[in-house]
Design a protein that fits this description.
Ribosomal_Su5_D2-typ_SF, ATP-binding, Ribosomal Protein S5, domain 2, GHMP_kinase_C_sf, lyase, ATP binding, Alpha-Beta Plaits, globular, about 325 residues, alpha+beta, 14 strands, 8-stranded mixed beta sheet
Length: about 325
Amino acid sequence: MHNGKARAFTNIALIKYWGKKDQQLILPMNNSLSLTLDAFYTETSVSFSKDYSHDTFYLDDQLQNEKATQKISHFLDLARKQAGVFEHAIVRSQNFVPTAAGLASSASGLAALAGACNVALGLNLTTKNLSRLARRGSGSACRSVYGGFVEWEKGNSDQTSYASPVASHHWEDDLAMIFILINDKTKDVSSRNGMQRTVDTSLYYNDWLKAANIDIEKARTAIANQDFQALGEVTEANCLKMHATTLAANPPFTYWTPDSLKAMNKVQAMRQAGQNCYFTMDAGPNVKILCQKKDSETIYRELQKDFPSHQLIMAHAGKGIETLEMEVAK
């Protein structure tokens, strides 16, 4: 039997990944840049054994259906092929998230699975190659291999598409991100389907790519200069441009809800009142607010005037992937 266990933290893209140029290899159309956070993480264990007749996947102690297990099996096949081990496996994945958060994360989940497979199968991957492997499970998972600011190089092949840390002199430790949780219902349009529809049909998509290339340069410069206002401005603008592409798709769609707009308006009103904060959103209704740690409690209290506390989560910079000890079976 081969066992491994790992923990990986979620990341939030400040410069978004939106669109694939290769569905099979999960190669993105543009570079992206994220901040790994401490508020939410996944712990995943994997055990390979010749005694297992099929792959089994448990998420939060619940046995998963065939469709969910197939996705995990496809990823396990990639790791098995690298290792030359072809035993079936039991995967147990546990999401750790504050109560009522309504957040799922393929990024932390697939990064943790990649880390667990690396240990169990003795792959001894470098962090770069671990990032490449995680990418094959979920694109954004490649960024959760590292802590702090991380850039995913789009590349043009399996070998050249991977994430790496962005030098920041630990400036991320001065920052915070507050999540406003709008709802946890299943999205009408999944991230994967929405992304592809946008690439295929949105009149704005080519302009998005041009803008994203400029935005990532701005973000790198802002991090190098530790310029919070510049980073906040490009983060918010990049988010709005990404969501504009969905409105120009055919048929059009949006991930925004009335409460998403309420949250965005609140952030802009706070900024006009002198609070230094900026929002971002991924392919879902939840709004994340980037601010400086020194201002975070004041901003949190201001948000409580409009949103109940159970909808608010404070996060700070998180760590890279960690290997964990497996519990001994009783």
